[in-house]
Amino acid sequence: MTVALEGRPGRARPTLVNHNLTTASGIGLGVSMIWFSLLVLIPLTAVLVTASSGGWAEFWRSITNEQTRAAIRLTVMAAASVTLVNIVAGTAIAWVLVRDRFPGKGLLELVIDIPFALPTIVAGLVLVSLYGNDSPLGLHLANTSGSVYLAFLFVTLPFVVRMVQPVLEELDMEVEEAAASLGAGRATIFRRVVLPSLAPAIAAGAALSFARAMGEYGSLVLLSGNLPFESEVTSVRILSAIENDNQAAAASIAAVLLVISLLVIVALDILQRRVARRG
Amino acid sequence: MAETRRASAGPTTYVLRVLVIAYLALLVAWPVVLVGTNAFANGTQAMVDVLADPDTVHALQLSAIAAVVATVINTVFGVTISMLLVRKEFPGKRVLSALIDLPLSVSPIVVGLALMLVYGGRNGWLGPTVEDWGLQVVFATPGIVLATAFVSLPLVIREVVPVLHELGTEQEQAAQSLGASGWQTFWRITLPSIKWAVIYGVVLTLARSLGEFGAVKVVSGNVLGETRTATLAVEERYLNFDQEGAYALAFLLASVSVLAILVVFVLRARGTRHRAFERQS
Amino acid sequence: MSIDVSGVNKRYGEFVALQDINLTLPTGQLTALLGPSGGGKTTLLRIIAGLETADSGSVVIEGVEATRLPVQKRNVGFVFQHYAAFKHLSVARNVAFGLEIRKKPKDEIRAKVDELLRLVHLDAFADRLPSQLSGGQRQRMALARALAIEPSVLLLDEPFGALDAKVRKELRDWLRRLHDEVHVTTVFVTHDQEEALEVADEIVVVNEGRVEQVGSPDQLYDAPANEFVMGFLGEVTVLGGVRLRPHDVEMTTAPVPGALEGRVVRALRVGFEVRVTVDVAGQDAPVTVVMTRTHARSLGLEPGTAVWLAPAEGATAVASATPAARPAPEAVAG
């Protein structure tokens, strides 16, 4: 049995009974579970069931359709590259937010959260305004595969930053000072002392960022043009299948995304426990 | 705490600072500002036109209603689940706490599809039955509410759970030793203590709900004047070459979300100061 | 009898927290549950309060069978180590909480709160938030809050454990005086033997889930039931197979019949007393002897001086089965 009790040490002790629900909290749990099932669990199960209803061959044909394959390849490539960029950029941003001080830093904090709160369709429009055909920078990324990378970078920006920032804040500066007193240079301190403590948080942020990018749709609508074999992502393929009333094919591609989401959730659960243990 | 954490400012510090500012300016700040300037490129005319269009006003109303209903549901559900996850032991707790985060990493299109498969009026698992009761879900407001509630489900929980953990159970036990029932303890002690976390969660949920696009696109049917939400209207206007209108509407939506982050930002700063003070004394 | 605990057992998985506890505490008495951390004393207190349930056994409070009563119905006042102040309520509202729950009339609540705040010397702080109080003030507020409901028993879990030494000592004296005024049956948990000896009418020594001894401070100090109690209540040294207090060792510079011969290793002055370490032939561990400075000077002790050691007349002594067994670090620390 897992014991995740809180409070002062010495109070939290494992109990032999496997629940401590009162009648009221039992009803609360029951109602919540019914709602959660109706809203999330049953619908997601329906996706997996529908995907498998036509058998393995049918499923395989749906996801290996040439156009779908190209879309999945682009999505995975872009999501993976963007996640790598986020690992570096996100850690750097978190570092600057925690350790550096300069006027206007508060504004930076605000900017980080914008991609999270902005409606995705607006995010697409936002990016079109700077990187579209009327680009004041002369960059014409709209309707190219580059636009997919750009949109992913935008919508996934907060994840690594927001996972790493609190860990970095809690990090004991004395450890770094101790390392310095033992003769370690700044690069060595970062690599051998700071980075290992941040690693679980970075990995958790990366997992969230990858999952978010894999399923992204809204920000691409106005930006990427959804050109087959060029800028069409997996979500768009699912939507086309839905619009063609081919629910089985839609469910098959959706199942691939869903499995990736589930894997990310499992990875996150493990990583967050590790973050908690270190903190 | 953080104010003494200052890296000795070497050249690396400055290079990093400039790079980070440039990256964020190019990726976020500049484009967001451009939406504002584009929306008002020809003065306030575009905005006036948008707000004079009854279909757009209907879309805004629909978005607002769906967002408010979804937020109310997610707040009640979120606080209940958080209390259960932190304060109670029951079989399957760890699985539940992992699954709660699932909506954050599922594609909105997959969310839409999943709801269609279950609540679709023609051949959904439950859709025909529910329709027999006289309730149309998909291609109607209930479907929009469900899609919105799905995507913003974990936000309240993610805010409340860590605060409940940090709060501990001593105050609740003290209240009970003074005679308070479970219900009285919750209303008089626990809820006031997690108030700010609930408020952050509500603001974030509201912002996320207002902006939902993909899942709503699949389940709403996008019927002008009926099931078209504000975000769908932005797409429609842009694709119909009404760029000014699209920018004006986008500006409205963006203002709401930026306002939401501002509110959370200010509240958080307040909370941090409060905690720092408490630790001092 | 105010509190009657009989046959109480409690396990957490494999860990036995309490084993067949039988305890009777008379009305109006101030009792200390004393023992090392993890010994089960807090668990026992929480079982009396109803914050924890025993696996078996019964708890009777003021003649009322309370074993199955929830904490809300037991009418006990409980004071937590970390105050458990309601942070969002003012000091006065904290104290009023239990009365509000009992739906007492507003005037009555106000009068009672005023009276209690005066009692704990917090009348000037009624409208402050707990975060604006010091630790000692917060604990006094918690005490007033627990007393407000006129509890049949007052239970305190390490009430001064989180405070610094000076405040702890003040509050300790104050609790004793308060008890003499209010006279409510009080049980407090502590791991500090000095605190227990100074404040309590009766001490219950709890260790490894069992009651080792119950008695007045004098009884426990002068007639410890076993090695553990002796070690926990004060410093112990071993002389010729007998455990006794270092100040109960008589030292002479001339041979005495029955005394053991030894050689001074070190003489350390600590304030008004002198601690002498003596190597005794045929004994592994050296013997510690404590005496006044005047006495030490009259003996003219130097490292290497030959001395003869014997237990003083009427000394508290327990035969030592295993000379190095069960040291009690907390007790030796002073």
UniProtKB/TrEMBL annotation, chain A:
<dbReference type="InterPro" id="IPR011865">
    <property type="entry name" value="CysT_permease"/>
</dbReference>
<keyword id="KW-0813">Transport</keyword>
<feature type="transmembrane region" description="Helical">
    <location>
        <begin position="21"/>
        <end position="51"/>
    </location>
</feature>
<feature type="transmembrane region" description="Helical">
    <location>
        <begin position="110"/>
        <end position="131"/>
    </location>
</feature>
<comment type="function">
    <text>Part of the ABC transporter complex CysAWTP (TC 3.A.1.6.1) involved in sulfate/thiosulfate import. Probably responsible for the translocation of the substrate across the membrane.</text>
</comment>
<feature type="transmembrane region" description="Helical">
    <location>
        <begin position="249"/>
        <end position="271"/>
    </location>
</feature>
<feature type="domain" description="ABC transmembrane type-1">
    <location>
        <begin position="72"/>
        <end position="268"/>
    </location>
</feature>
<keyword id="KW-0472">Membrane</keyword>
<keyword id="KW-0812">Transmembrane</keyword>
<comment type="similarity">
    <text>Belongs to the binding-protein-dependent transport system permease family. CysTW subfamily.</text>
</comment>
<dbReference type="InterPro" id="IPR000515">
    <property type="entry name" value="MetI-like"/>
</dbReference>
<comment type="function">
    <text>Part of the ABC transporter complex (TC 3.A.1.6.1) involved in sulfate/thiosulfate import.</text>
</comment>
<dbReference type="InterPro" id="IPR005667">
    <property type="entry name" value="Sulph_transpt2"/>
</dbReference>
<dbReference type="Pfam" id="PF00528">
    <property type="entry name" value="BPD_transp_1"/>
</dbReference>
<protein>
    <recommendedName>
        <fullName>Sulfate transport system permease protein CysT</fullName>
    </recommendedName>
</protein>
From TrEMBL, chain B:
<dbReference type="InterPro" id="IPR035906">
    <property type="entry name" value="MetI-like_sf"/>
</dbReference>
<dbReference type="Pfam" id="PF00528">
    <property type="entry name" value="BPD_transp_1"/>
</dbReference>
<comment type="subunit">
    <text>The complex is composed of two ATP-binding proteins (CysA), two transmembrane proteins (CysT and CysW) and a solute-binding protein (CysP).</text>
</comment>
<feature type="transmembrane region" description="Helical">
    <location>
        <begin position="98"/>
        <end position="121"/>
    </location>
</feature>
<feature type="transmembrane region" description="Helical">
    <location>
        <begin position="246"/>
        <end position="267"/>
    </location>
</feature>
<keyword id="KW-1133">Transmembrane helix</keyword>
<keyword id="KW-0813">Transport</keyword>
<keyword id="KW-0472">Membrane</keyword>
<keyword id="KW-0812">Transmembrane</keyword>
<feature type="transmembrane region" description="Helical">
    <location>
        <begin position="133"/>
        <end position="157"/>
    </location>
</feature>
<comment type="function">
    <text>Part of the ABC transporter complex CysAWTP (TC 3.A.1.6.1) involved in sulfate/thiosulfate import. Probably responsible for the translocation of the substrate across the membrane.</text>
</comment>
<feature type="transmembrane region" description="Helical">
    <location>
        <begin position="14"/>
        <end position="40"/>
    </location>
</feature>
<keyword id="KW-0764">Sulfate transport</keyword>
<feature type="transmembrane region" description="Helical">
    <location>
        <begin position="60"/>
        <end position="86"/>
    </location>
</feature>
<feature type="transmembrane region" description="Helical">
    <location>
        <begin position="194"/>
        <end position="211"/>
    </location>
</feature>
From TrEMBL, chain C:
<keyword id="KW-0067">ATP-binding</keyword>
<feature type="domain" description="ABC transporter">
    <location>
        <begin position="3"/>
        <end position="233"/>
    </location>
</feature>
<dbReference type="Pfam" id="PF12857">
    <property type="entry name" value="TOBE_3"/>
</dbReference>
<dbReference type="InterPro" id="IPR027417">
    <property type="entry name" value="P-loop_NTPase"/>
</dbReference>
<protein>
    <submittedName>
        <fullName>Sulfate ABC transporter ATP-binding protein</fullName>
    </submittedName>
</protein>
<keyword id="KW-1003">Cell membrane</keyword>
<keyword id="KW-0813">Transport</keyword>
<keyword id="KW-0547">Nucleotide-binding</keyword>
<dbReference type="InterPro" id="IPR024765">
    <property type="entry name" value="TOBE-like"/>
</dbReference>
<dbReference type="GO" id="GO:0005840">
    <property type="term" value="C:ribosome"/>
</dbReference>
<keyword id="KW-0687">Ribonucleoprotein</keyword>
<dbReference type="InterPro" id="IPR050093">
    <property type="entry name" value="ABC_SmlMolc_Importer"/>
</dbReference>
<dbReference type="GO" id="GO:0005524">
    <property type="term" value="F:ATP binding"/>
</dbReference>
<keyword id="KW-1278">Translocase</keyword>
<dbReference type="InterPro" id="IPR008995">
    <property type="entry name" value="Mo/tungstate-bd_C_term_dom"/>
</dbReference>
